[in-house]
Amino acid sequence: MLQSPYQIQSGRPKHECGVCGIFDHADASKLTYFGLYALQHRGQESAGIVSSNGEKVFIHKDMGLVPEVFSESRLEKLLGHMAIGHVRYSTTGASNIINTQPLMVTHRGKTLAVAHNGNLVNSIELRRDLEEKGSIFQTTMDSEVVLHLMARTIDLGLEQALQESFTALKGAYSILMMTQDTLVAVRDPNGFRPLCLGRLNNGGWIVASETCALDLVEAQYIRDIKPGEVLIIRENEMTSLFPWPKQNTSFCIFEQVYFARPDSDVFGINVYQTRKRMGEILARECPMDADFVMPFPDSGNYAAIGYSQASGIPLEMGVIRNHYVGRTFIQPTQSMRDFNVRVKLNPVRALLKDKRVIIIEDSVIRGTTGKSRVRSLRDAGAKEVHMLVSCPPTRHGCYYGIDFPSSKELVASNHSSKEIAEQLGLDSIYYLSLDGLVEATGLTKDDFCLACYNGIYPVPPDLSFHKDALNNT
């Protein structure tokens, strides 16, 4: 199903991708479907599943949400005891059917499929080198580089091909791969993106981006795939390879701030509790007097709970979210000012009139929608509007799988807090400190990639990648 020409745009950072794989279950494709359904928040552009019965491989993928791409009849055609699936938002490669995942090739009678979450920072260099050696690329995806590297080394045997191929990659990747009879999970040595292993009720296995996918299929969480681990699952055998020297972890802290579902445990940390602690620390760092605290649902909900409980200021839902917002082919008229904002969120006028309001937001990235949202509160009669943000100012671009590769797009990169408050129509704005954010996770600064806040990149980005990626999206 193709995307509609008009969609509600939030101006929020886009999720990267989500992956889910099932091994040794008669309904592998259906369980993968449910896993992807749980991971829909990580990518809403396209979805796909590849399955295998040990001899033949089956595939279906298309543009659209998971329930739009897959029907009962389509899932029944994805035969086999093993499957991998993918939901996507494009961070490199154009948004079209060619670039949907999983990607699949057959080379010398061997079929290989790959589903990738993350971004490779040396993909342009690798792609050019492979093309000079005769490789012909079919997509603009950095993920396709993995297939070509594997194809060139597969005659060495699967284990050796995996080591040869993945040690050539640089950047962020949590990857699922599948042959006719083997499931492979790979996580980059920095561990930027999450990936976890679970046990199914029948004794089979599930690997997924977040634990919420395990919960939906009633699987038992076993452990995270370790940074730098290549996990190979075959019938009656599970093997782990560690082809890289041990490195410091670089967990993406934005997973805790925004991307991951609050009911997931990511990097061994419960997301709901972490976001609530962010709000508690905000209350300590920035005590204020107001009539009530409110989020713009659903982004600031959990930090708002924490701030309210720590400060004693009541929590109210000052705006109501329309949960039935989807796609529309009907263009709003020019006179329908801020339609995109109002169709999703509508203020409770009786609650807001003459009130001093604290908005809790999880992040302010481009600042493109904040002005309209604040104005809607003013129009509803709010006397004061303050904003507290449960992360530091986002000043630097991301090269590891989030769609703000250029600092020019980030409002905090070239505006002071006072200027941002004026731009958004706020009485004031305050950001959680970097120390406060890390404290909320219970880990240390050394555990995380904090590049979007401090500009320190664990894996140096290739500037040619940055330029080409912008041209492709």
Task: Characterise the protein shown here.
It is globular and about 70 Å long. α5 (144-153) packs across α6 (158-166), α9 (271-285) crosses α10 (301-311) and α9 (271-285) packs antiparallel against α15 (434-441). 29% of the residues lie in helices and 24% in strands. With 473 residues, it is α+β, with helices and mostly antiparallel strands. It has two domains: 17-250, Glutamine Phosphoribosylpyrophosphate, subunit 1, domain 1 (4-Layer Sandwich); 270-322 and 340-443, Rossmann fold (3-Layer(aba) Sandwich), CATH 3.40.50. It contains 17 helices and 23 strands. A hairpin with a 5-residue loop joins β9 (196-199) and β10. The protein has helices spanning 28-38, 66-69, 72-76, 123-132, 144-153, 158-166, 211-216, 254-259, 271-285, 301-311, 339-342, 349-352, 370-379, 417-424, 434-441, 451-454, 463-472, and strands at 17-23, 46-52, 57-63, 82-88, 103-107, 110-120, 171-178, 183-187, 196-199, 205-208, 220-224, 230-234, 237-241, 251-252, 265-266, 269-270, 292-295, 319-321, 345-347, 356-361, 384-389, 428-431, 448-449. The longest helix is centred in the middle third of the chain and has 15 residues, at 271-285. The chain has a seven-stranded antiparallel beta sheet with strand order 3-2-4-1-10-9-11. Strands 5-6-7-8-12-13 form a six-stranded antiparallel beta sheet, with helices on one face. A four-stranded parallel beta sheet has the order 17-20-21-22.
